[in-house]
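Journal club side-thread
Mid-discussion, someone asked how the predicted structure for our own chain would compare to the paper's figures. Pasting it here so we can look after the session.
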Amino acid sequence: MINMKAERQFIGNSTYRSRLVDGHFHTELCPHGSGDRTALMIEKAIELRIEKVCLTEHAPLPKAFEAEYGGDKIAYDTASLKLNQVDSYLELGRELQRAYGTHIDISLGFEVDYIPGFESDIQDFLDRYGPLTDDNILSVHFMDGVGGKYYCVDYNTEEFEKGFGPWISNQSELYYKYFSIIRQAVRADLGAYTPKRIGHFDLIKKYQHHFGFEHHLDKRNAQLVSDILHIMRVQGRELDYNMSGFFKPDCGEMYPSRFIQGIAAIIGVPFVLGSDAHSVADVAKVWD
């Protein structure tokens, strides 16, 4: 059993200082979630003395991206909200703010996918819905792989091997490929509502135990990570210290690693803790 009280000793400086804030929180509308009512998740957070939660549901993927995708259809279909669900999600968030606002601070936003080549689509979405949000995350869940098509990084090991098989035997190249997209993400101009926080920075390691990846970064990847964090510091960005990785059997540690946390602390990039909860049980196991 994971001792989360011990694990919640982080390296670096929290944006919220000593406040207990969950900055990465999904809802009942998430297509790959548990279906648990978000109100029950909020109530569990209140019970555990969380002072603020940031609702960050997966924003719709760009419509044209489907033609560039080569992976599992279910992974694609369940990755995010559909555009016709966005208004329902925003109304759900407002209802929760009205119902629980005297007990807990609830911010409303999206976890937005960064996909190279779709910057204008992402900006169009943010320009439209950004004014209605408080807090957004920019994440990389998809990476180009076999045949130049995109595959999901975190769906399952079969999908990972199908999409990135040629790189799996060379961890350095695989990780460099992923972190290079993170660098593109932080450099991208996505307009006035560009998300400030970068989600699960080293998600590429989710199946590290399954594929036998080393926990440490080689010199080239460590330098790339450092370069990204320097860019983020200048931009005033922050990291999602995502605790869901502790509970992924083939990962066993949070995103980002303690090593990356150390670099971020030295450079001066702050963090926001996040459970990445998709259920009441997720809230409990991270914060209890």
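Post-session note: The two ends are 13 Å apart (CA to CA).
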